[in-house]
Amino acid sequence: MIRIEGLSRVAGSKTILDSINLEINRGEIFTFIGPSGSGKTTLLRLIDLLDTPTTGSIIFDGTDTTAPDTEWLAIRRRMSMVFQKPAVLNITVAGNVAFGLNFRGIEKSETNTRVHEALDIVGLLHLAERKAVTLSGGEMQRVAIARALVTRPEVLLLDEPTANLDPVSSEIIENLILRINKEMHTTIILSTHDMIQGQRLADRIGVIMGGRMVQVGSPNDIFYQPFSKDIARLVGIDVTLKGVVKSNDRGHAEIIIGNSIFEAITSAPAEQRVVLSIRPEEVTIKLPESESGKTSARNQLLGTITRMVQFGPFIRINVDCGAPLTALITRKSCGELGLTIGTKVMAIVKATAIHVIPDSG
Amino acid sequence: MSEIVSGLLQAINLIVTLDPEVMQIAALSIMISLAATVIAASISIPLGGIIHFYEFRGKRAVTILIQTLYSIPTVVVGLLLYLMLSRSGPLGYWGLLFTPGGMIIGQAVLIIPIITGLVIAALGGVDRNICDTIISLGATGFQTIMQVVREARLAILSAVVLGFGRAISEVGVAMMIGGNIRGETRVLTTAIALQTGIGDFPFSIALGIILLLIALVIVVIMNILISGLSAESQQALGGPRI
To answer: Do B138 and A104 make contact, defined as CB atoms within 8 angstroms?
Structure first.
């Protein structure tokens, strides 16, 4: 659907985007994830042809949009963008939604039908005659989405659609995005800095850091096999341990971290310096004296609880096993096991749950 | 002191009795400045639009030049125009020196920079989000410009009103190009200057009061425009803004 080749944008002396290559498929939900200021918005604006790239090209459905004789307007009219801060005009909700159709000179009766349809999809039919500026933030964002949908775009671009919204409104918007994608087969490209949202919505994720597309893949790829320490940190893996590979038997490696040995699956050869990343939810805690039988998990480390922090329905537990590990367990199990700071526990991690990243420095 | 008081009383008398000469001077002033404002606006608004919407080399320099010309002395405009319009000047054959037509041109030249500059500022003040939304919704270049101008229309209107204020209160151009010919090119400001010079204070005071009243009307209009975001005044100005 959209192919991006060597795309860069430089503003003044600052490189905002640096040689991005990406292919977005028809009908998928593609999410850009990255910290604030990493270039997500700029990339969306370039795709929507609002800005021009410094170098590189965007090929929209076979048409090179950077060619000098491109019909920008015709291509732009096959897309719609919803901005982070929804700009609604001081007219009725229905009037706002009709805006894009007015530009296209669509007949009045057709416009009315389509506005009705779009407002129905976002669940704001009952507010059609209200002044748009009197709506709440979440409702305004839904008006903006209806306004973008009413032109029946093939590609819908959303820039941080839930950035300033409360959790309930965010959930409504997220469900709406999934429904639009499923029922209308609209290709959706959205940016977010909310990792959970990215994981929940995306078919594929592109991680942008400092203007570079550092990793592209399925949510599982990104969350379980981040390419680098920075990505691991970004997607919420906070346990990264530095160590050296001791031995590697056909991909099953032993890695020395401090005075413990971890087993993990990697192709890194012996003597290679590596970083291990372990997602806290992959770490199991048990009491050392409990008789819960044998387990296939390769890493079982004795340690002491050093810190416990409440985290919604979970508790994050830091365990010092020679190397510091973090586990995320439910409050219920924590109560049943009677864990407190200082308790001696066994931290269990499967070898396959440890991701090994070569350590560059 | 008694001279001021009696002058003031006579001035009020001149206004209340609609003294023909006072009224003629006031009407001519308003007409000349209105015409100048209409001409200046019809040049400045498109010009400001072009400068705002198109990227070109030296855009910044042009903006700085325009802002500098905000405070161009009226006598300098008068001098330049005198040189152009005088019998021996390049435009002498127009025969506009010492005519209302010449004054209109002079005042228009004077206020074009102000209106243009304020129009650029007004267009630049339109929320970038709104511009992006309009473009992203598939507006053509022309539709985009029209919508942005529509968004900025209150600010553009106040630019024009401000231009009128400068035109009607200036004295340099009116004196040098108009020549203060009684019944023909004598306007409020030039008449005040002349009558004061010959000691006819009541007449001057009367004209001064009228000039202040015009300023008051302008300020009231400006205030309505600036508070134009409230629903009521929008209605008064012709419906809600889009």
So the answer is: yes
- Give tens-digit pLDDT for A57-80: 999 998 898 888 778 899 999 999
Q: Within an 8 Å CB–CB cutoff, is residue A85 touching chain B? A: yes
Asked if pLDDT for residue B113 goes beyond 80, the answer is: yes
Structure tokens at B103: 């004054």
The yes-or-no verdict on residue B36 having pLDDT over 50 is yes
Our CA angle for A149, A153, A156, nearest 5°, is 75
pLDDT 10s digits, A178-193: 999 999 999 999 999 8
**CA–CA separation, A213 and A220 (whole Å):** 17
Nearest to B74 by CA among B212, B190, B205, B240: B190
Best B133, B134, B143 residue to mutate vs chain A (most A CBs within 10 Å)? B133
Rounded to two decimals, the pTM is 0.70
Distance of CA A315 to the CA centre of its chain: 23
Contacts of B2 (CB under 8 A, 6+ apart): none
Q: Which residues of chain A have pLDDT under 70?
A: 237-239, 291-293, 311-312, 360-361
Contact by Cβ (8 Å): A50, B135: yes
Predicted complex: ipTM over 0.90: no
Query: Of the candidates B127, B132, B138, which has its C-beta nearest A103's C-beta?
Result: B138
- Tokens for A297, please give them: 């998990």
Q: What is the C-alpha separation between A255 and A242, in angstroms, rounded?
A: 9
Contacts of B154 in chain A (CB under 8 A): none
Decide the pairing of beta strands A187-192 and A155-159.
parallel
B129: contact with A, CB 8 A cutoff:
yes
Longest dimension (CA), chain B: 71
Q: What is the rounded distance in angstroms from the CA atom of residue B183 to the CA atom of residue B21?
A: 8
pLDDT computed for residue A334 by the predictor: 87
